[in-house]
């Protein structure tokens, strides 16, 4: 991990300067936890399913049954059970992935307040960019990785809960930059 740290290039960002930061092509804030889209579902899902030994075995048997000199059974005796199992698994995988798409959309479309031109503007989480100044209220979710500039407390402290990240429910103390 130390070796990786030495290889990482330093990055300079400009606070609240969208044009300068956009030119550097930083990663966006949109999340995507889904595995598939409409074009990739069938090939990816079949690939994943045939990586399972049982499915690959039945596919191999099906190929052997297609050769009339080897098999005395009709290929349909293997095709139907295999297609049935593959279809059920594909339906379950599609259902799970649709739920992930919905969850991603819900998170990406949450709103937060950012400072633009000295005024507070409402932005969707997916539109937050590196360098944006985000205003967070009490008990509000943090929209992205942030540098704490200031808090409403005189000592610059704030308390955060990271239960969604690491499962720990104890509040953690963070302090704003002393320079601000």
UniProtKB/TrEMBL annotation:
Gene Ontology molecular-function annotations: ATPase-coupled intramembrane lipid transporter activity
P-type ATPase A domain segment(s): 109-153
Annotated signal sequence range: none
Annotated P-type ATPase N-terminal domain residues: 13-79
GO biological process: Golgi organization; phospholipid translocation
GO cellular component terms, semicolon-separated: plasma membrane; trans-Golgi network
InterPro entries linked to this entry: ATPase_P-typ_TM_dom_sf (IPR023298), ATPase_P-typ_transduc_dom_A_sf (IPR008250), ATPase_P-type_domA (IPR059000), P-type_ATPase_N (IPR032631)
Highest taxon of the lineage: Eukaryota
PANTHER family found in the cross-reference section: PHOSPHOLIPID-TRANSPORTING ATPASE (PTHR24092:SF190), PROBABLE PHOSPHOLIPID-TRANSPORTING ATPASE (PTHR24092)
Name of the molecule in the record: P-type ATPase N-terminal domain-containing protein
